TrEMBL record:
It holds the Pfam family VanZ. It comes from the Bacteria. The chain crosses the membrane at residues 12-32, 39-60, 88-106, 118-136, 148-165. PANTHER family: INTEGRAL MEMBRANE PROTEIN, MEMBRANE PROTEIN-RELATED. Coiled coil: none annotated. PROSITE patterns: PROKAR_LIPOPROTEIN (PS51257). Residues 55-162 form the VanZ-like domain. This is VanZ-like domain-containing protein. It comes from Actinokineospora fastidiosa.
Length: 176
């Protein structure tokens, strides 16, 4: 548990702090959108914002004392290598990082109502995360396996909820 807190501990207070801010923003959006059914769209907006916070934190917040970003582009190096507690938590964290976006984004954006589009979008986001970590001096590990796990998590999240969101996405006239 101590290792989990050391790896992801800052994300939890950030999320708790952001929740009231996001709820206030959602209420402001609801006041601006006085259309029938707008609350469903706003709830999707809030959920997407809350799911994007950990991603933004992991891309933009530096770790360590000015360490250089390391790069591991060998497929399977982390997945099939030696496991210690840090590696296991990092792999699990990467698997679950984009899962909420895969579950929620099709509710928010009608054009994501196909598994192919969710898979393509999640692959682009996963590569974008790793690219951002490589370009910015944040001292994080840029790894092929991280992108693969992010993509897999988002796609699994979409697959698990597909039967639910395929019929419940907001109507076209509600898209912004």
């Amino acid at each position: 548990m101590e290792m989990l807190w050391r790896l992801f501990g800052d994300v939890l207070p950030l999320t708790l702090f952001a929740l009231p801010v996001v709820i206030v923003l959602a209420c402001a959006l609801a006041a601006l959108r006085r259309r029938r059914g707008a609350w469903r769209l706003i709830v999707a907006d809030v959920l997407v914002m809350m799911a994007a916070l950990p991603v933004a934190y992991l891309v933009f917040v530096p770790v360590g004392g000015g360490e250089r970003t390391s790069v591991s582009l060998i497929p399977g190096a982390d997945l099939f290598g030696a496991y210690d507690e840090i590696t296991v938590w990092r792999l699990v964290g990467n698997l679950f990082l984009l899962m909420p976006l895969g579950m929620i984004a099709p509710l928010r954006w009608r054009w994501l109502r196909s598994m192919k589009r969710v898979a393509l979008s999640s692959a682009c986001v996963a590569v974008g995360i790793e690219l951002g970590q490589w370009l910015l001096p944040v001292g994080r590990v840029v790894a092929f396996d991280d992108a693969l796990l992010n993509f897999t998590g988002a796609t699994l999240g979409a697959a698990v909820t597909w039967a639910w969101w395929r019929d419940r996405a907001p109507a076209r006239h509600m898209e912004v």
